[in-house]
Amino acid sequence: MDWKDLPSGNVEDRRGGGSGLPGGGVAIGGVGALVLALLGMFFGFDPSVILGGGNSSQNQSQSQSQSQPQSQSQGQGNEGQISDVDGQFVSKILGSTNQTWSKIFSASGKTYTQPTLVLYTGKTASGCGTANSAVGPFYCPNDSKVYLDTSFFNQMKQQLGGGGDFAYAYVIAHEVGHHVQNELGIAAQADRAQQTAPSEAAANQISVRLELQADCFAGVWGKDSAQFTHITQADVQEAVNTAQAIGDDNLQKQGRGYVVPDSFTHGSAAQRIKWFTTGLETGDPKYCNTFGSAYSSL
């Protein structure tokens, strides 16, 4: 894919400035190291909730009381300030998602508030608690920021045995998809539904629908940006391979040797591929209806 001519996004570069934290991170228990690494590859609002560790409100309060790390806030045109290729790539993909969603929101008479993406190394403070490299990329609705450790791309290659620019872009676009959900109020609706769910399995199903919609939204971006990125079938296959690798069924098979569908929080490999390709083929968020009659969108 071609990405160097894409517009730049709002990137806050905290790499090399110290963590701003006194040590430690979100406590996560009962998860094997390999599964944690694989689960940490992808997605979620507050990773401590998704991975079953810590208390989000407590972590948020803690992070707000801690000193912030050194950071360099960068906006449009920041490719001149971020000199490394990974940083420039992330900024360009974020900028391209801004372009896509600003256009879609505007067509519906809405205003899209562009998110910030925080690049960090190791760990840093977030509005949802401690952002830790073990958790992987995630979106925090409390501060409308996507958090990404710069070691993530290497982890994708090593842990998932793949990677590629469009696969990396798919991950970023998925996290931005959560921001879109936050902007539209879908995230809040899902949160309320989870609070009143009759069982853990039912609450998990809501999480799955939320994640699959973010996959579909990532596909919508892919379709809209194709005229600028010139993605090929090989590029698409990279993203599909990634979606398959991080399906809950595949992760559980690797981690525990068997699958427990009721415990899925992101969807099976087949579901993730289906919804990503739905967005990619249609380019229309109206087809990303993973919630049925409860869906409220553009």
Offer a few descriptive terms.
globular, alpha/beta, two-stranded antiparallel sheet, five-stranded mixed beta sheet
Which percent range describes the beta-strand content? 5-15%
State the helicity in percent bands. Answer: 40-55%
How many individual β-strands?
Answer: 7
Principal-axis shape equals: globular
Domains, number: 1
In N-to-C order, the SSE pattern is EHHHEHEEEEEHHHHHHH
With strands numbered from the N-terminus, the spatial order across the biggest sheet is 2-1-3-7-6
Structural class: alpha/beta
Main beta sheet strand tally, sense and closure? 5 strands, mixed
Using only C-alpha atoms, the radius of gyration works out to 18 Å
**pLDDT < 50 stretches:** 18-80
Mean pLDDT: 76
| Count of discrete alpha- or pi-helical segments spanning 4 or more residues | 11
Distance between the termini: 28 Å
Describe the structure concisely for a colleague:
By secondary structure, this protein is of the alpha/beta class.
Describe this structure in words.
The strands form 2 sheets. This protein has a 5-stranded mixed β-sheet, with helices on one face. A two-stranded antiparallel ribbon has the order 4-5. With 298 residues, the protein is an alpha/beta fold. The protein has one domain (10-294). A hairpin with a 2-residue loop joins strand 4 (123-126) and strand 5. It has helices spanning 33-39, 47-50, 56-65, 85-107, 152-160, 165-184, 186-195, 200-229, 233-245, 248-256, 269-282, and strands at 10-13, 72-74, 116-120, 123-126, 129-132, 138-140, 145-149. Helices cover 50% and strands 9% of the residues.
